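The authors assume throughout that readers already know how a fold can be written as discrete tokens. Each protein is reduced to its one-letter sequence and a matching series of backbone shape codes. I therefore recommend that a typical entry be quoted early in the introduction. For illustration, here is how one protein appears when written out as sequence plus structure tokens:
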Amino acid sequence: MTKLFFASKRPNDAAAIISPGNYGRGFDNYRVSRLNGGDPWMLAIDQAVELARLRIDPNLPSRFNCNYLFLSLETLHASTAKMFGIATPLAVWEAELVTPDAACHIGNFNIIPPVEGETYAQICRRAEQYWTPNTDLATQEFITSSDIRLTSRVIMPTR
């Protein structure tokens, strides 16, 4: 299998096992409050993505209950501003799947945002595009329902 890279805001130890579902657990505690920078559309957008997955292929991993990885450091770097709101994540690791035959998908991390000014129907079309196999190497995000094992720390140059 190709090398996989994992980005984290938190420090981790080598050989740590990361369970899938951090993104979904974040929504379990998400407070929709525009006064505190929240956006109620985030919930609707991610529900549209999940409904599209269930229609297209329910065997694909749910974005709510998966691990997010990248196939290259360049793609990871390009996505960190969107994922974390910072240019460089605090920690980058090479990783491996604990269960290599677990459900996985390569989606386009640019498909979902930005949606400003779009209708729900347009958002649903974007959601369906996310579940189309992505061949654009610059925007590939690898999601899997497998636990992942961190194998070695990658020192990222600052930008």
Summary: The radius of gyration is 16 Å.
